[in-house]
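Protocol step 4 of 6: structure prediction from sequence.
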Amino acid sequence: MTAATHSPLFPRESETGQSDTGQIVAPPRDADAVLDGLDPEQREVATALHGPVCVLAGAGTGKTRAITHRIAYGVRAGILQPGSVLAVTFTNRAAGEMRGRLRQLGAGGVQARTFHSAALRQLQFFWPKAVGGELPRLLERKVQLVAESAARCGIRLDRNELRDVTGEIEWAKVTQTVPADYPAAVAKSVRDAPRDPAEIGQIYGMYEQLKRDRSVIDFEDVLLLTVGILQDRHDIADQIRRQYQHFVVDEYQDVSPLQQRLLDLWLGDRESLCVVGDASQTIYSFTGATPDHLLNFRTRHPGATVVKLVRDYRSTPQVVHLANGLLNQARGRAAEHRLELISQRAPGPEPVHTEYADEPAEAEGTARRIRDLIAAGVPAGEIAVLYRINAQSEVYEQALADAGVPYQLRGAERFFERQEVREAGAALRGAARFGGNDSLLDDVVELPSQVRAVLSTKGWTTEPPTGSGAVRDRWESLAALVRLAEDFVRAKPTATLADLVAELDERAAAQHAPTVQGVTLASLHAAKGLEWDAVFLVGLTEGMMPITYAKTDEQVEEERRLLYVGVTRARFHLSFSWALSRSPGGRASRRPTRFLNGLRTGSTAPAARGAGAGAGGSVERGGAARRTRRGPVLCRVCRKTLTDAGEMKLMRCEDCPSDMDEALYQRLLDWRADQAEQLSQPAWCVFTDKTLMAIAEAAPGSAGELAGISGVGSRKLGRFGADVLAICAGEEGAGGAGDD
């Protein structure tokens, strides 16, 4: 993963068509040297420093490289003053990456921020002058206040409704819709509200009232209040415009009406603006994002310079071919402006399409393929499993755990909040302050060596520990800090330990984390802006892709764009899969997504499909022969049909009485603890609790009976089967960890 396996502050250049070695070079010697290595279109972007500029940049075409070199070229040539440039993007990670690249190019001092971050700084500075007193406290999470607002309105919301209503309030605010107008705005936008729009409007109104009563503001208020001040106070608007003379906006297809209004106020009557975007990657309309600002740019700025970046340096021709074919079937205004990508990489493997009998088989098959890739040399951190909704992750977490494959959930515990990282930061901070009195650093001069010496007291070693448990997780976190120090000193050879500590503090504030290894599990939305060597797109059935609630043509087209974003995350290996039923033995009533029609062997293309899509890859059958003869899974107590994966593993309803042998279960738990310790793995990597419960309830007497228990599988049967059967038979079964 780009943001995980390579430092995002000093990223490798493979996505831009340059060296893939990851080596950091000294800043270019002069302005002309900044342009070295750019392709013709990237160079055109970098040298277009005057007037409005619109860059239409396809996935993997090096857009970040183009715009950072544009800023750096302007600064190094003396045309732009660093402090007069404001580069705006949508995530702290992207802003941090942009700042790092600009420093590397010798253009430090340029402000690269999110819309919210830039607006908050301005609001904090000008609030005393514009309003008086201190800025109201910023509400970090609005969910609790929304829940209280609903309660005061006599409306009860469950957890999912609470999340959805909170999202509706955010949408209303970024589209500048007041509570009274919310029901009409929903009707006009053909938006599916999670509750009666009148009720949501009522909750929204109470939410705003409670905020006023308690003198708090939310993140959307930061933009709204900044817009209000700039509209009402021309003196403040003029002061900001004198400060910032030149604006760059990345991911312009995701701009909301409120963000566009703020940008217009920053600009005033000037046209010193460069925007970068791709209408085919508009996937956040539910938050108020719209590609209209990008698509209408030339209408608003008739004299604009427009540059298209279509040379794809990220993905193989096979991946690019399929991505182009996916968009060739698209409809609507965004589709009319699609970019036909041209791969610049050597050929790779064909995309693989796999059909499974049921969801557990799909997850197990995906885990097996991932194990094969890792065995073939693909790092775990360069593999991702992407799905439509977060609820799909559980079965893949289980399958990867059963296969002994380490994974990380995108959006899980933040890197800088991990205990070992906090401890390491404290140790480095102490060494930077009192290093002269630390014997560890007596004979160590080089910065990376100093970091290694300090972190060696916290568990870092030159070689990683075996296994993939908590010990390995801790080591990976510390190793990430070592790699960051190595990258940092390459970019800044004179850097000291104090400089590195300051850099870590800045990154912690922005939650801009370095390398962590492990297969990434993420939703398609969360994968935007990232890339991996191998991508598995799973659960691709009608009703999930496109999602059931995508009713209108535009909503369906956004689902197609979401799949396109997933496809273009892959550099080399690309896999599509779907399951014909939810559970083993279920009716095979599902169909693969319509978006793959004409793109996989044996499927029929839509009649109006554009040229060049073509069938790519092959269709495999995964797990179907093994499972098709099984009937519905019934509870062995009440005979009710089971659909929940955990209940199917136990072969009974969760609420039905258990006949588990408690003593056997305890022996299995003790044995599992010993195995996990020997393997340096979490206990669930041996067997999950549910699997052990199922074994204790079934008390299998043969390998065949043990193999029939969900969660065992052929690999674990061979590795642990003899021990488990011995324990079930009342024998000791104290053998060592099985060979892999």
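Step 5 (inspection) to follow. The chain has a mean pLDDT of 81.
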